[in-house]
Amino acid sequence: MSSTPPEPAIEWPVIDLPLPPPGTMGPPEQYGWLRRQCPLAQVRLPAGATAWYATRYEDVRDLIADPRLIRPTINDWPPRHDRAADDEPGLITMMELDGPRHAALRRALAEPFSVRSIRRRLPRLRRSADRLLDEFVAGGQPGDLVGGFLEPFPLLAMCELVGIPYEDREYFLPRADAALGAILTLDEGRQVTAQLRDYIASLLDRKRRERADDILTELVHACGRGSLDGESVVNFGLSMLVAGYRTSTMFLGDAVVALLTVPGQYARLRDDRGVMPGAVEELLRFIPVMNGVVVLQAVEDIELHGRRIRAGDAVLPVLASANRDERVFADADRLDLCRADNPHLTFGRGAHNCIGAHLARAQLTVGLQALLDRFPDLRVPDGHHPTWDDESPSKSPLTLPVSWCATDAA
Ligand code: HEM
């Protein structure tokens, strides 16, 4: 470990939000110098607002669990000139809840999201993966693995566990993506938020009448017993639509790209499955999806690295940069499937840390195992490439053309 360099003597200008180089998953090239020279930078976001961008491991670890930073609703941040004082609160998910209601929800969810409970579901997860791969293979090769498997598998896994009908995806997916998108006008935002709330509320009505083995059914019955309030269950349902699958989909997509493009890594995992648990942790560290995805807002002034974060300012603790911090991870930019010491921050820390971490790990493990078993020779065929959305700060392939037989003919 090297000693901490002196604080920057100059006042750094506001920089544009660092983006991954075009045609790659990233990370942005600026991480290294920001960590060394300007660990708390001011960035301008695509929508125009500015935010603090914290890149060092120890800062990110502390900020994400700091009670002086809250999770704002999409109505509270970024600031909008067309916002009226009496606006309805935006989409309220579990992330924006705090205090006793948040604690009660976390208690109710601890068992269904526990390692033990997720482990029980592994055979079912594997059957879902195999079924999707049967359909994918039937389409012939080369095929697009993103549309055929990498997107639907984590979504199906979340839907089955939580009790959201997978068949409804064409209704809720575009609305959930729109609710998350920064380009929404306030009116559009209100509209999709209201539609998603109505969707979850009517689903909960059905769960009250029909018993099923899923988390939403358990939660509506916990409400009946008085241990939880109904609004919190709606907030949880909304969290699943916006946080319960997109990150997993992106991580699984990037994991397959990393394994196929870093020489020897796919074969390494195929030939030694004992490496899998550590390899999954290393992929979670290495994949830079969490590039300013978590947005916090200061409720009081905070001093850091000689700069003052003022109450109301937004702070982005950049988990993906912390995971590449050379002070903590030896040879941090290398994918090392056998890395021994790996305290990555991908699932956050503190009161709002990821409740779905064990499910996400299971999705990565089962998804990769199903691919390695079915396609020992998986590859991106010559002349084909993954495609990416180069405008986005957190990237995963939009399409990934793959072949799986010794010859590329179906
Ligand atoms: C690789 C996949 C995933 C990653 C990297 C990830 C990452 C994170 C992070 C960093 C947080 C903390 C955000 C904050 O501090 O404000 C979080 C919160 C959360 N995640 Fe995940 N997540 C993943 C998958 C999932 C899945 C599969 C689910 C559920 C099906 C899920 C549900 C949640 C929920 C409900 C919260 C909010 C918890 C709270 O506010 O108490 N996540 N996630």
UniProtKB/TrEMBL annotation:
Keyword Iron: yes
Region annotated Disordered, chain positions: 1-21
Entry keyword Heme: yes
InterPro entries in UniProt: Cyt_P450, Cyt_P450_B, Cyt_P450_CS, Cyt_P450_sf
Pfam families, alphabetized: p450
Keywords assigned: Heme, Iron, Metal-binding, Monooxygenase, Oxidoreductase
Origin superkingdom: Bacteria
SUPFAM superfamilies in the record: Cytochrome P450
Entries under PANTHER family matching the protein: CYTOCHROME P450 YJIB-RELATED, P450, PUTATIVE (EUROFUNG)-RELATED
Family: Belongs to the cytochrome P450 family.
Name assigned to this protein: Cytochrome P450
Classification of source organism: Bacteria, Bacillati, Actinomycetota, Actinomycetes, Kitasatosporales
